[in-house]
Amino acid sequence: MRIAEIYKILDEIAPFENQEPWDNSGLIVGSLNSEFERVYLSLDIDTDLADFISPNSLIITHHPLVFKGLKSINYDKYPSNIIAKLIAKNVSLISMHTNYDKHVLNEYFVREILGFEICKKDEFLIYCDVKVSFNELVNLVKNRLNLAQIRAVFAKDDIKRIAVCTGSGMDLASLVRADAFLTGDIKYHDALTCKENGLNLIDLGHYESELYFGASLAKYLQNFKIEVIITNSKNPFTYR
């Protein structure tokens, strides 16, 4: 299959034109005229994954390897070292980031992973009506994500509506109209502000909330004659 063919399929799933202005979703490495033998799906691409991928393949990641223009291609530094490995193995790279968040990933995470019914959608924010205590909500999230512990900010106990945004969604906190906001990459001062304003927070973790990218996209690609391999880059954080 040619890259152009699967690019069209991906564009129908989550149109690339709907990405945020600052984003860099689309074809990152390769040519639309190139052909590939198999597809790898991953949240990111790191050195281990670049070494693992078979030649003449396509990798589709959630996060773009390149966000801004590169001033140099230094094979000793990231991300140029990854680009060099991909080119040497004739591996193409497509990324689906904010366009995929809006159309697929946030909804998939809420329904398939957390198990909630969606009552409202507002761009990146997914709203769900619930009737639980904050402690019950925290324990539910921990169990669904298989986490031993999770960071949380307590502001009030009665939770009737939650808002969810995978990845890093704290820029949207001021827009949230709910009792609790579930997202990742929560900073100290943002947490303090939300607590004082009566908004509970649960830090899902960036990696932990988006590692389901591959599984969510594979559901769409299974209808085509494509060998799809779900894998993932490693979480750069370790817990000790």
UniProtKB/TrEMBL annotation:
<feature type="binding site">
    <location>
        <position position="101"/>
    </location>
    <ligand>
        <name>a divalent metal cation</name>
    </ligand>
</feature>
<dbReference type="GO" id="GO:0005737">
    <property type="term" value="C:cytoplasm"/>
</dbReference>
<feature type="binding site">
    <location>
        <position position="63"/>
    </location>
    <ligand>
        <name>a divalent metal cation</name>
    </ligand>
</feature>
<feature type="binding site">
    <location>
        <position position="206"/>
    </location>
    <ligand>
        <name>a divalent metal cation</name>
    </ligand>
</feature>
<dbReference type="Pfam" id="PF01784">
    <property type="entry name" value="DUF34_NIF3"/>
</dbReference>
<keyword id="KW-0479">Metal-binding</keyword>
<dbReference type="InterPro" id="IPR036069">
    <property type="entry name" value="DUF34/NIF3_sf"/>
</dbReference>
<dbReference type="InterPro" id="IPR002678">
    <property type="entry name" value="DUF34/NIF3"/>
</dbReference>
<protein>
    <recommendedName>
        <fullName>GTP cyclohydrolase 1 type 2 homolog</fullName>
    </recommendedName>
</protein>
<comment type="similarity">
    <text>Belongs to the GTP cyclohydrolase I type 2/NIF3 family.</text>
</comment>
<feature type="binding site">
    <location>
        <position position="62"/>
    </location>
    <ligand>
        <name>a divalent metal cation</name>
    </ligand>
</feature>
<dbReference type="GO" id="GO:0046872">
    <property type="term" value="F:metal ion binding"/>
</dbReference>
<comment type="subunit">
    <text>Homohexamer.</text>
</comment>
<feature type="binding site">
    <location>
        <position position="210"/>
    </location>
    <ligand>
        <name>a divalent metal cation</name>
    </ligand>
</feature>
